[in-house]
Amino acid sequence: MTKHIFIYLLALFTLGNASAQSWKFLRNEFSVGLGATNFLGELGGANRIGSHNIKGIKDFDFNATKPAISLGYRRFFSPNIAAKVGFTYGQVSGNDAYTNEVFRKNRNLHFKSPIAELAVQIDYFPFREYFGHIYRSNGVVGKRVNNISPYLFLGIGGFWYNPKAKYQGDWVKLRPLQTEGVAYKSLSVAFPIGMGVKYAIDKQWSIGLEIGLRYTMTDYIDDVSTEYTDKSGADAMTQYLSNPALSENDNASWTSPGQQRGSSKANDSYVFAIFSLNYKLLKGRMNLPKF
Fold it and tell me: d(Cα 29, Cα 163) in Å, to the nearest integer?
């Protein structure tokens, strides 16, 4: 009897210890994702003044939602902490024609821009994934499988953008035109912050959803930031793309040189929402006891 109890307790200890260390055999995870992106800045939006950050969630322009794709690699340093390197590509856009806010409607600007982002982030999982064997012996039940793993993340990355607007049926690059007299760069820094959740299908496969806001170090993703400049000496295309306003009668002065075109008080932001398929690479052999 004593021998049986000892063997039973040893088996419990072995199972618990092996399960606690099992994450080390599955610490490398690869993912591919498909989702959507949206933009928070001066252009487009709902029927209100534009906002650049998460406080302006009510200003989301659902007409401007575009697809995005992603590739990622995550490495776990503990069951609860991981670092992820990800590449995400999408397109953001905005169009003042979609809003009834008087100033923005009259301004009549629009744009689209690709976003190619490479970023690294730290993920925190409050509840780890767990796949132990469900066993029964003399009525004792082992740990249950935990399939759902929510997490928070914070990171830093770089991205490339290239705003364009349509002129006489063609999409024209806006950066070379210096519509506000500013020679801004096409590379900038982003700070991803957000949350996600993973659902484990088995030890190696899982699906997930991640939603993240990107604060950036530029206010020119949409080519709009400060004020109207005098483009009277420029060619017709530059004049139009700098100021395609619908100004008539009393509001014609709204878009004259020196008047507000955008707002430089806050930089532009964008959002990625990605559904992913994830695969953990098994390293070595997981010799878990089976009951």
Answer: 34
For residue 114, give both structure tokens: 């690709």
Collapse the DSSP code of 36 into the 3-class scheme (helix H, G, I; strand E, B; otherwise coil) and give the result: strand
Q: Indicate if the pLDDT at residue 20 is higher than 70.
A: no
Query: In angstroms, rounded to a whole number, what is the distance separating the alpha carbons of residues 282 and 28?
Result: 8
N- to C-terminal Cα separation, the chain: 20
Note whether 56 and 50 are within 8 A (CB).
yes
- Please report, as a single letter, which amino acid is at residue 253: S
- Rounded Cα gap, residues 107 and 97, in angstroms: 9
Question: CA-CA distance, 280 to 250, in Å (whole number)?
Answer: 63
Residue 236, Cβ density class (10 Å: 0-12 exposed, 13-18 middle, ≥19 buried): exposed
Q: Kindly report, residue by residue over 202-256, the tens digit of the pLDDT.
A: 888 999 999 999 999 999 999 999 999 999 899 999 999 999 988 765 666 788 8
Place of tokens 């029927």: 47
Domain ranges of the chain: 26-281
Tokens of 141: 């039940």
Name the nearest CA neighbour of 73 among 64, 65, 83, 81. 83
Alpha-carbon distance 75 to 27, whole Å? 5
C-beta of residue 193 within 8 angstroms of C-beta of residue 182: no
User: Strand 140-141 relative to strand 136-137: parallel, antiparallel, unpaired?
Assistant: antiparallel
| Side chain identity at residue 56, one-letter code | G
Q: How many residues does the chain have?
A: 291
Strand partners, 83: 75, 122
Pick the CATH number of 26-281 from 2.40.160.20, 3.40.50.150, 3.40.50.300, 1.10.3720.10: 2.40.160.20
